[in-house]
Each structure stands twice: as structure tokens, then as C-alpha cells.
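Researcher: I'd like a structural prediction for the single chain below. Treat it as a standalone chain; there are no partners to consider.
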Amino acid sequence: MSNLKAAHRNEDTAMPSPRWQELHDHLQAAKRPIFQELRGYPPQVAGCDLHFKALAEKRDAVCRELDRLDALREATAQELDDFAASSAFLAKDG
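Model: Treating it as a single chain, here is the predicted structure.
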């Protein structure tokens, strides 16, 4: 199930590596304030609220990153480091 549609559900499958869990926790931490701000956002004026649209795009992007990470659940440390380096939501030092 996509993180974009499900707001990222934790699925109990194979136990991920500590590095995977660390990256997952960082992405979840990046996602939380975006979702909180969107929940508290006042109703839009039809098509005029650029900040809301930017938040929605950021929400979608962080959910796509979580989907990418989910696909790497059994990845090697190098693959996880490569993912971290390519993610806009993770510090470049991992």
C-alpha cells in the first residue's frame, strides 16, 4: 500500500536493519509537522493558496520517500546510504 494513500502504515514484515529503522524514523519525523500543519490549515480560497499547495506537494514527496525506503527494507548498508544521500528529507550525513 502506498504511503501517499495510507499516510504511511507500519507493516509488520521482516525485521529491518537498524540503519533502515534510523532512516525511517528520520522520514517520519520530517512527515509529522507537515501533516500537522495541513490538518490545522484553514479552508482554502479556491485555487489561491500557494502555501497550502506547497505543503501538499511536500507531504506527497515525503510519502514517496517512505515508499522508496519501504522497497529497501532488506537492502544492504550501501544501498541505504545511497538512498539517504539521494533523499531531500534526510541530512546528507545520514
